[in-house]
Write a structure and sequence with these properties.
It comes from marine metagenome. This is Phospholipase/carboxylesterase/thioesterase domain-containing protein. InterPro entries: AB_hydrolase_fold. The protein is mainly α and 64 residues long. It is built from 1 helix and no strands. It is elongated and about 85 Å long.
Length: 64
């Protein structure tokens, strides 16, 4: 029984100290790979400018 308790205590100490030993590692890296001008088509319904209250869906078509 004493051996079981000592093993529990030992494992608890190991688990608690292992959490504090880990350092937070963060790396943030932003790179601009290439500047590109893209052509696009824009379609607006006839009542788009007249009706400010209506919420219109945005539909994107990505090719490539």
């Amino acid at each position: 029984m004493i051996r079981y308790c000592s093993i529990k205590v030992f494992l608890s100490i190991v688990l608690i100290t292992s959490v504090y030993c880990q350092k937070e590692q963060m790396k943030e890296d932003n790179k601009t790979v290439q500047e590109v001008d893209l052509n696009y088509l824009l379609f607006l319904p006839e009542s788009y400018n007249n009706d400010q209250e209506t919420k219109w869906p945005l539909i994107l078509f990505l090719h490539g």
